[in-house]
Amino acid sequence: MSEIVLVHGSCHGAWCWRDLKPELAAFGHRVRAIDLPGHGQSPCPIEEVTLEAYADAVLAAVGRQAIVVGHSMAGFAIAAAAQKAPEKIERLVFLCAYAPRNGLSLVDMRMEAPRQPLLAAIEKTEDGMGFVFREDRIRDTLYHDCPEGTVAYAAEHLCVQAISPQATPIRLGANYEGVRKSYIRCAQDRAIPPEYQETMTAGWPDEDVHALPLGHSPFFADPEGLAALLDRIARGT
């Protein structure tokens, strides 16, 4: 069985993997969900939250070697980690995530997409250093297909997202390119346009691209189905 490290997206934390962790453990995998700096139980001054700090947090969570799953903006965090220490990464799994390209920031890629549905769902903090999700938009944008109670649970935990790591161009090279990768598209995603998820994986081997008929939070919408898919990816089947 595999060691699996779960890395959350914008404004989230380890809490969002609540329902997925036991499903993966039932397959026999060793599972760890982490809080990136400035999220959840990992407090950090917003001016110290960087893309490099994200990468270091991912690597600190890995034992000898792990499959690292990154949701949404965490595609950048896990890619940066693979560039720094590829020997610690068995496989990267991008879960309806940004699959970065060298020299671009997440903001660059978000604006490259044919639509920017997130822009209407977020608002900057007064200091301009972060953003939060608008309470009246989180259901429709993030959790529209999730069970009753999900929105209330998430609203208690969502936090400020630092802008700096998302505005930092990523530097990727041979280390990152040499790591095995899989992508899971979500066909009903209302945060990252599904058509842009297809664009980001153009040219990837068919066996490394998977699809789920879900929105942006499949770990809440169908944790059992997502766990089964991650198990198949881990087993290489």
TrEMBL record:
<dbReference type="InterPro" id="IPR045889">
    <property type="entry name" value="MES/HNL"/>
</dbReference>
<protein>
    <submittedName>
        <fullName>Pimeloyl-ACP methyl ester carboxylesterase</fullName>
    </submittedName>
</protein>
<dbReference type="InterPro" id="IPR000073">
    <property type="entry name" value="AB_hydrolase_1"/>
</dbReference>
<feature type="domain" description="AB hydrolase-1">
    <location>
        <begin position="4"/>
        <end position="228"/>
    </location>
</feature>
<dbReference type="Pfam" id="PF12697">
    <property type="entry name" value="Abhydrolase_6"/>
</dbReference>
<dbReference type="GO" id="GO:0080032">
    <property type="term" value="F:methyl jasmonate esterase activity"/>
</dbReference>
<dbReference type="InterPro" id="IPR029058">
    <property type="entry name" value="AB_hydrolase_fold"/>
</dbReference>
<dbReference type="GO" id="GO:0080030">
    <property type="term" value="F:methyl indole-3-acetate esterase activity"/>
</dbReference>
